[in-house]
Amino acid sequence: MSTVIEGGTRRRTPPASLIERLRQRFGDRATTSEAVLLQHGSDESHYRPVAPDAVVFAESTDDVVDLVRLCASTDTPLIAFGAGSSVEGHLLAVEGGVCVDLSRMNRILAIQTENLTATVQAGVTREQLNRELAHSGFFFPIDPGADATLGGMVATRASGTNAVRYGTMRENVVSLTVVLADGNVIRTSRCAKKSSAGYDLTHLFTGSEGTLGIITEITVRLHPQPEAMSAAVANFPSLDAAINTVIRVIQSGIPVARAELLDPLTIRAINSHSKTALRELSTLFFEFHGSTTSVTEQAASVQDLATDLGGRDFDWALRPEERARLWTPRHHAYFAVLQLKPGSRSFTTDACVPIAHLAQCIAETIADIEQTGLTAPIFGHVGDGNFHCMILVDPNDAADMQCAEQLSHRIAQRALKFDGTCTGEHGVGLHKIDYLVEEHGAIALNAMHRIKSALDPKNILNPGKILRQ
To answer: Which end of the chain is more exposed for a tag (fewer CB within 10 A), N or C?
Structure first.
């Protein structure tokens, strides 16, 4: 194997003999097409693409086993790929190697509603699973926005808009099938509701971003479809008033399913993008799940709390088409915001703090943004203390990128100051590596290095992510 240096990064280029063996084993499912390589070296982050040297489309756990063993025999890096929707550079082949695309592993293997579980291959997407469940009376609630694969959602410990009620992937994964760096296969747990037997391997691999093993099958928890849902939207005179409303709702024990915040700039972007005429104010979007009576009572209780803090134009709906009308602005937020600065990319931040500190953390962030002069709308899942700042940058403007990086750094440090985390749901990838010492401490980080070394001694699984080697 040849080794070259590119921009200070050690690139481990696969030997020609490995590429030939991949073609022999996988046929036309192994490719070095430049277009395919570029697609698999790109994600939704602000980073420029970094392509792998080859892509293999896996269709089974056995395929992944054979691929891992071939790569391990030549110390070739191996990066798992799902839908390509990550935002922290998780998929970039910074040391070269082979990308294993798991999107063809898209079979739903078992739905056991009596056990409230479903078992799927890693390439099944959340929308695909919910379509299959549509008439079962159950659903899978984790919604990160994009139609991500379940394997990618486990790997990044994703969450999204429903997390305030249903939790994140961490709470909704029962068991995993994982191919280790030596090609051996493990099942991390059985499907009993609880167990005290041994180390919790399921949660070790959940959030590991493909650095400890390649997830090929997942058993997830299902939840009963609620009898009724209601949605509500309210405007506020300030972000502080909106956030404090959410804090009061959570502290009052109202079982809200979603609580989303959009700042005035985001609403302005939506009005321009979707030709709507929404008030350009701080806006909260709520959703409630339960019986018809309970969701009505929940909406009324939230309206009372919102009114006390200056909330107005409170609009709520029960029927699906009316709920969709209310929630459409939130669903369009990401693409609408990009149009505020045509040709820009989003340098997307992801901070999460204890909810009691959320108002102060966001207020300081807004003041920080105003000092920079950058265009950076704020929105997020404020029901669990998670917010995003979409910093719009010209990727070809070095000064713009540096200013955005500095702002992103201050947001992460601010979250840590408030006993929060540098990433609530996007993961570490390339971008958040240097915050882990401050967040976890040197001793804990050393323990992570030792786990990585034990499970992947050749450092072939998604090298350069989460930990510096």
So the answer is: C
Q: Which of 221, 217, 222, 220 is nearest to 105 (CA)?
A: 217
**Per-position DSSP letters for 285-314, written without gaps between them:** EEEEEE-HHHHHHHHHHHHHHHHHTT-EEE
303 burial class (0-12, 13-18, 19+ CB within 10 angstroms)? middle
- Nearest alpha carbon to residue 54 among 70, 86, 78, 74: 78
Supply 87's token pair: 């935002």
- pTM score over 0.90: yes
Q: How far apart are CA 328 and CA 320, in angstroms?
A: 12
Which tens digits make up the pLDDT trace of 123-162? 999 999 999 999 999 999 999 888 999 999 999 999 988 9
Number of H helices, E strands in the chain: 17, 21
E strands of 131-201, at which residues?
138-139, 173-179, 185-187
Domains of the chain: 2-103 (3.30.43.10), 108-224 (3.30.465.10), 228-336 (3.30.70.2190)
β 173-179/228-236 pair status: unpaired
- Which tens digit of pLDDT belongs to each residue from 363-410? 999 999 999 999 999 998 999 999 999 999 998 999 999 999 999 999
Backbone angles phi, psi at 211, to 5 degrees: -95, -15
**C-alpha dihedral, 350 to 354 to 359 to 361, nearest 10°:** -50
Residue in 124, 145, 114, 132 with CA at minimum distance from that of residue 224:
114
